[in-house]
Amino acid sequence: MSAPPPGAREDHARLLGVGAYRPRRSVDNSEMCRRIDSTEEWILTRSGIRSRRFAEDDETLEYMAGEAAGKALAYAGIDGTEVDTVITASMTNLVQTPPLAAGVATLTGANGAAAFDLSAACAGFCHALEVGSALIRSGSARNTLVIGVERSTDIVAPDDRTVAFLFADGAGAVVLGPGPEPGIGPVVWGSDGEKGDALDMTRTWPEFVSDPAPGQPVIRMDGRRIFRWVVEGMVDVAHQALDKAGVTLDELSAFIPHQANARIIRMLAERLGLPERVAIADDITESGNTCAASVPLAMERLLAQGRAGRGELALLMGFGAGLGYSAQVVRLP
Ligand code: ACO
C-alpha cells in the first residue's frame, strides 16, 4: 500500500464512494419483545442491538440496492453511465432469475453494464469487493458498483427468539475504480463447509412446494457455535490480511467488521490488540445484523460520523454462514 512512482499506470483498484439505504421502519427492542419471549435487557447485553430496520413491501432488494448505489455514485462524483460492472451480494434474494444486479444496473443509469449476483452470506460483501477489485486489476472492468443488500425479514421466522431480534434489512454500496496505487489490499478468505449446519435453512424450497404445511424455509442458527468459531479463528485471519497488505495495527484508522454482535466485535478488537485510537465501526446498535449489507453500512456510518477519513486505512472483515470469511485492508473512500 505504498505511494506510486510518478506517471504510474492506473492498474490497481481503489474505493471511490460509499452509500447506504436504511429502511424507513425502525423496530426497537420493546416492540421486538412483543413478538418474542425475551427482554430488552437480554437483547441489548447479548447482542448490543437497541433497534433495527425492517423493510416494508415497497422496499425491495432492487429498490434498496439502487438507492444505496445512487448515493455511492454521488459520493464518488460518477454518473451511472460510467459504470461498466455491477455486483450484488445477498443471501435473501428469493428470485432465481433474472439476476438482481441487472435490475440495479438499470435503476442506477448503468444499463448495459456487466451485472451478476454473488452469495457468500455475511461474508458476501467482502467477497464481492475482491471480485470487483480483481476485475479492475485485470483490465476487465473499470468503474464497478459492489452492493450488499438484504431483506433478512423474508427468511427469518418473526417469533423465533434465537434469531428474530438479530437479523435486519438494508443496503450498502461502494464504487470501485482504477487507481495508480493499491487501494484494496489482498484478500484472505476461506470456508468450512463441515460447519455448514451452524447456520442454515430449516428446509428446502422444493420441500416447501411439495408440503407447504410446515411453512416456508427460514434461518436456523446455532449462535453459540458461530460465536466461538469467530472469536477463535478470525483474529488470525485479520493478522493475515494486515500482513498481506504490509500494514501494521498502528497504521490502521478503522476496524470495520461484519456487524454480527457487539460482543463479538469487542472481543475481536481486544484479541487483535487494536490500539485505542483505532475507530471500531458500530452500525449494529441501530441497524442490527444486516448480513451482506453490514460492512458497507458500517463504513458509511463511520465516515458520516467523522470517526475516520478519506484515504485512511481500514481493516474490513466479513464472516458467517458457510461457514465462510473474507478480509482485506482498504483505503477509505
Ligand atoms: N431472549 C432471552 N433469552 C434467550 C433468547 C432471547 N431472545 N434467545 C436465547 N435465549 C436463552 C437461551 O435459551 C439460553 O438459555 P439457557 O442458558 O437457559 O440455555 C441463554 O439465553 C443463552 O443463549 P445463548 O445462545 O448461549 O446466547 P448467546 O450469549 O450466545 O447470545 C446470540 C445469542 C446473540 C445469537 C449470539 O450467540 C450471537 O450473536 N452469535 C453469533 C451470530 C452470528 O454471528 N451469526 C453469523 C453471522 S450472520 C450470517 O452469516 C447470516
Briefly characterize the structure.
This protein is of the alpha/beta class. It is 32% helix and 24% strand.
Describe it.
With 333 residues, the protein is α/β, with parallel strands linked by helices. The protein has 2 domains: 12-179, Thiolase/Chalcone synthase (Peroxisomal Thiolase, Chain A, domain 1, 3-Layer(aba) Sandwich); 188-331, 3-Layer(aba) Sandwich (Peroxisomal Thiolase, Chain A, domain 1), CATH 3.40.47. 32% of the residues lie in helices and 24% in strands. It has 10 helices and 14 strands. The strands form 4 sheets. A 5-stranded mixed beta sheet has the order 1-7-6-4-5, sandwiched between helices. The mean pLDDT is 96. The structure holds acetyl coenzyme *A. Acetyl coenzyme *A is lined by residues 36, 38, 42, 46-47, 121-122, 161-162, 165-166, 199, 221, 223-224, 226-227, 260-261, 289, 291, 320-321.
CATH class of the largest domain: Alpha Beta
Low-confidence spans: none
- How many DSSP-defined strands? 14
Number of helices: 10
Strand line-up across the major sheet: 1-7-6-4-5
Q: What is the N-to-C succession of helices and strands?
A: EEHHEHEHEHEEEEHEHEHEHHEE
**Radius of gyration, taken over Cα atoms and rounded to an integer in Å:** 19 Å
Amount of beta strand: 15-25%
- The CATH architecture assignment of the largest domain turns out to be 3-Layer(aba) Sandwich
Structural class: alpha/beta
How would you state the average pLDDT, rounded? 96
Sheet with the most strands, sense and barrel status? 5 strands, mixed
Helix content: 25-40%
General shape = globular
Compute the separation of the termini in Å: 15 Å
**What small molecules are bound in this structure?**
acetyl coenzyme *A
The H-level CATH homologous superfamily of the largest domain, spelled out, is Thiolase/Chalcone synthase
The total tally of domains equals: 2
What is the CATH topology of the largest domain?
Peroxisomal Thiolase, Chain A, domain 1
